[in-house]
Amino acid sequence: QKQISDTATIGKGRLVMPGAIIGNHVQIGKNTMIYPNAVIMDHCILGDNVIIQSGTVIGSDAFYYNKKTARDVHYKKMLSGGRVVIEDSVEIGANCTIDRGVSGDTVIGAGTKMDNLVHIGHDTVVGKNCLFAAQVGIAGATTIEDEVILWGQVGVSKTLTIGKGAEIFAQSGVPSSLAGGKKYFGYPAEDAMIKKKELVWIKRIPLLWEKVFGEKK
């Protein structure tokens, strides 16, 4: 098996390290680095000055199934007909997975940086100059606008929008859309200052209970 498909198009100054696989009809821009054992699946597009670290898979099939309980096998795999499009100056850490779109493209905007072990679901559109820390997971068909920061282990549900410039603190969960330009924390993710005040009040509940009912909890 060839390391680089004959149908792939790769710009000048690129560096594809040993063990990396470049699939059929892949397009890669100038000065792009693909580290060992990374996999760029068929039809994916990478811009200029992109870095893909070891073990990352770009263009894996969508986690997308048709469910019918009348069948012995309830979940039928649906075709992933889209691509992954990675714009200029994006950096993807080690062991990340970016699924191709189902009916459209999964897109990573220019200048976005991702740490290790990040997952991006099918048909998700990530804006420009975003920053994702390790173990961030984003479900399918989600829109992440420009300049969003997601710290470690943030989980984002499907088909929602996180607005421009939002920052979400580590281990938060996002089940619904969030406005841009604010800091968020917790599950469900809410304004970080409000959530911190709530945590302070929760710690006071045993003392309040004792005062009201005369019983220690």
Give a written overview of the molecule:
- With 217 residues, the protein is mostly beta strands.
- The protein is built from one helix and 28 strands.
- It has one helix at residues 192-213; strands spanning 9-10, 15-16, 21-22, 27-28, 33-34, 39-40, 45-46, 51-52, 57-60, 65-67, 75-77, 84-86, 91-92, 97-99, 106-108, 113-114, 119-120, 125-126, 131-132, 137-138, 143-144, 149-150, 155-156, 161-162, 167-168, 173-174, 183-185, 190-191.
- A hairpin with a 7-residue loop joins strand 10 (65-67) and strand 11 (75-77).
- The longest helix has 22 residues, at 192-213.
- The chain is elongated and about 80 Å long.
- The termini are far apart.
Write the layout of secondary structure elements.
Layout (H helix, E strand, L loop, with lengths): L8 E2 L4 E2 L4 E2 L4 E2 L4 E2 L4 E2 L4 E2 L4 E2 L4 E4 L4 E3 L7 E3 L6 E3 L4 E2 L4 E3 L6 E3 L4 E2 L4 E2 L4 E2 L4 E2 L4 E2 L4 E2 L4 E2 L4 E2 L4 E2 L4 E2 L4 E2 L8 E3 L4 E2 H22 L4
Parallel strand pairs: 1-4, 2-5, 3-6, 4-7, 5-8, 6-9, 7-12, 8-13, 9-14, 12-15, 13-16, 14-17, 15-18, 16-19, 17-20, 18-21, 19-22, 20-23, 21-24, 22-25, 23-26, 25-27
Antiparallel strand pairs: 10-11, 27-28
The mean pLDDT is 95
Cα-atom radius of gyration: 21 Å
Instruction: Please work out how many helical segments DSSP would assign.
Output: 1
Taking the alpha carbons of the first and last residues, their distance comes to: 66 Å
Sequence of strands across the biggest β-sheet:
2-5-8-13-16-19-22-25-27-28
Helix content: 10-25%
Low-confidence stretches: none
Helix- and strand-based class? Answer: mainly beta
**Strand element count:** 28
The dominant shape is: elongated
Strand content: 25-35%
Assembly of the depicted chains: single chain
Can you summarize the main beta sheet?
A: 10 strands, mixed
Instruction: Please provide the ordered H/E string of secondary-structure elements.
Output: EEEEEEEEEEEEEEEEEEEEEEEEEEEEH
